[in-house]
């Protein structure tokens, strides 16, 4: 084990560790504020659990970076990036759904970190983090269920017998007719509506408290894109008479008081945008029906353009922290 720890961290280990530090430092800001504004006692307990996890992660990540003589990222701080005494911006319902979605995203990100880890200590770290996040997922889902707020995806008819696919109509339109959605296609459409709906609510709140007009304009455009995507996804579900999940914009208060820095607002916007392309890619991979693949590709291009514009805003304002990079050999040769 000692010999294993002496091995230098690889790019597939550094990248997720560095990204997690930024994510957790931003989460500490958000969760500390949510803890101050939440009203439900059970929700407060859950927020504190998530907040404690993020603080523990930051301490562990800092020690890893220092041991490796690797610069600790600046990340975000309570002093610079949030006013924890600001008025309530989001309802308890929003915060609970936010925690549940963040747990699901965390499981996705941490499993990627685990699969890319070579050193035993990093592998053990991600196993621990995944187990902690599974507990957050379990608790947040349980609280949503107990409060009648958990939104289930559509039920499907029972399969009476196993059959093989017959004909190209499974993939292509036949005389303009499309086959019904398969389970994985319906699941991805439903989940992408939920994620975009949460994104709309998040950006609505961000847009109300952002200070820069440039950021406000960018946030407004993001809301318009997300609303359009929800409409497109909903249309696919409605074609098969499937229910469409509700939005959460009503869970945002009318506060316009400074709450979050423009820097952390743009960071979350960038992170959520990047996740959209990841989930849309999953939608492509799990959707044999050709029109769905075309749809996801088209929407992904729109998201990528929006992401590029957001990155340019962050760079112009010196808000984007430089991620770890490989050596620039051409520069070193000068």
Automatic annotation (TrEMBL):
Name of a matching Pfam family: DUF3231
Which InterPro entries does the record associate with it? DUF3231, Ferritin-like
Name recorded for this polypeptide: DUF3231 family protein
């Amino acid at each position: 084990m000692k010999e294993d720890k002496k091995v230098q961290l690889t790019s597939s280990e550094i990248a997720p560790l560095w990204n997690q530090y930024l994510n957790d430092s931003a989460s500490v800001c958000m969760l500390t504020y949510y803890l101050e504004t939440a009203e439900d006692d059970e929700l407060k307990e859950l927020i504190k659990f998530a907040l404690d996890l993020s603080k523990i992660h930051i301490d562990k990540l800092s020690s890893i970076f220092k041991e490796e003589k690797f610069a600790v990222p600046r990340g975000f701080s309570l002093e610079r990036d949030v006013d924890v005494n600001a008025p309530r911006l989001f309802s308890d319902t929003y915060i609970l759904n936010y925690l549940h979605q963040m747990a699901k995203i965390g499981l996705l990100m941490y499993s990627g970190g685990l699969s890319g880890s070579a050193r035993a200590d990093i592998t053990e770290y991600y196993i621990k983090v995944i187990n902690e996040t599974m507990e957050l997922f379990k608790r947040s889902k349980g609280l949503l269920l107990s409060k009648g707020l958990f939104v289930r995806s559509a039920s499907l008819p029972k399969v009476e017998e196993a059959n093989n696919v017959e004909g190209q109509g499974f993939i292509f339109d036949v005389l303009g007719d499309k086959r019904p959605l398969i389970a994985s296609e319906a699941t991805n459409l439903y989940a992408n509506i939920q994620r975009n709906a949460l994104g709309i609510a998040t950006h609505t709140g961000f847009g109300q408290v952002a200070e820069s007009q440039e950021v406000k304009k960018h946030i407004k455009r993001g809301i318009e894109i997300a609303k359009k995507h929800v409409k497109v996804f909903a249309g696919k579900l409605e074609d098969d008479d499937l229910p469409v999940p509700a939005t959460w914009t009503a869970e945002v208060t009318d506060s316009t008081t400074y709450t979050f820095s423009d820097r952390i607002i743009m960071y979350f916007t960038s992170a959520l945008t990047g996740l959209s392309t990841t989930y849309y890619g999953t939608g492509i991979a799990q959707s044999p029906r050709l029109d769905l693949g075309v749809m996801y590709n088209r929407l992904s291009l729109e998201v990528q353009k929006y992401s590029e514009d957001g990155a340019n805003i962050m760079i112009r304002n010196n808000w984007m922290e430089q991620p770890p990079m490989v050596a620039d050999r051409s520069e070193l040769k000068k």
